[in-house]
Amino acid sequence: MGRCLPRFRKDGRDVQHDGSYKRLFGHRRMVQDLLQGFIREPWVAELDFSTLERVQGAQVSEDLQERQQDLVWKVRWGEKELYLYLLLEFQSTPDPWMALRVLVYVGLLLQWLVRELGLKAGDRLPPVLPLVLYNGLRPWGAALKMSELIIPVPGLERFQPGLEYRLIDEQRYDTASLAGLRNLVAALFRLEQSRGPEDVQTVVAPLSEWLGSPETRELQRDFVTWLTRVLLPSRISGETVPEVDKLQEFQSMLEQNVIDWTRDWKQQGLEEGRREGRQEGEAALLLLLLERRFGPLGAAVEERIAGADAEQLLVWGERLLAAEDLEEVFEPA
């Protein structure tokens, strides 16, 4: 029966981003800084972060072979014998079906908790908070609620799932406000937004101080791994980044290569800018053709097109040629 669940594919960039972020957010301090720094809601103050614990073996993936990689945490709600479960997902490209994915994941997690906790008739399930961290440059655009993906039919609304996930879009935070936070996740976001090696140096210096104690040695190593294997290669393609173990060693490496890497960084930025410009032009053309064919478009359609990648824009453009209405253009493949 489980094999009938829908499968959601990720491209290579998503997989790389997903894996590196899972290592970083496999540390308690990162999860605590994420909640305290970026979930601005009163109930966060009620959480007992000394009880924050990674839930090993939680089953939430639609792919049975990937279940052990799912990232789930739990934290006690104050003095109560109640735990909040956190389900973390990471995205580097927008996914128009994210709300459906999250619905599937939460359902599988709750199903697993029923067995794991030995819940019986009359027991109630613990709350789950789904968090999606997005580090892409394009606007997210995807629906945040499952109900937004379902065609509304009068009288049937209350029978449809309405689950909502919390989106944390890294690009929506300006570097000035992030710089004022002594927060590891804020430092991560600033590194993602860096425009050159000098920006990286500015963040790595305090980060090295924050992660200088013996108990944070493993987290420091994971930051260095992400910097050398994910961040720098994405900015200076074609260059070999030496392997280092500590942030201080990483700082020295940056200082030695700052001139050459700044040049490469700018060149990579120009190439990415050209690609982004072409994609924006394709999106604008598709909007124009849709408006001429079907009339004025709603904000939801415009956001969906703005968040689509080049491949998806091409698919919609091809469908436009034969579609009889707007819904037919966007119907699932």
Commentary on this structure:
The chain has 333 residues and is an alpha/beta fold. The protein has 2 domains: 2-181, no CATH class; 194-333, no CATH class. The chain is 49% helix and 10% strand. It has a 5-stranded mixed sheet, with helices on both faces. Helix 5 (184-192) packs antiparallel against helix 6, helix 7 (217-235) packs across helix 8 (247-294) and helix 8 (247-294) runs parallel beside helix 10.
Question: What's the tally of helices?
Answer: 11
Q: Mean of residue pLDDT?
A: 83
Largest sheet: 5 strands, mixed
Low-confidence stretches: 1-13
* Integer count of domains: 2
What Rg do the Cα atoms give?
22 Å
- The helix/strand order is HHEEEHEEHHHHHHHH
- Order of neighbouring strands in the sheet with most strands: 1-2-3-4-5
Please report which band the strand proportion falls in: under 5%, 5-15%, 15-25%, 25-35%, 35-45% or over 45%.
5-15%
- Care to count the β-strands? 5
Structural class: alpha/beta
Cα-to-Cα separation, first versus last residue: 23 Å
The percentage helix is 40-55%
- Categorize the overall geometry: flat
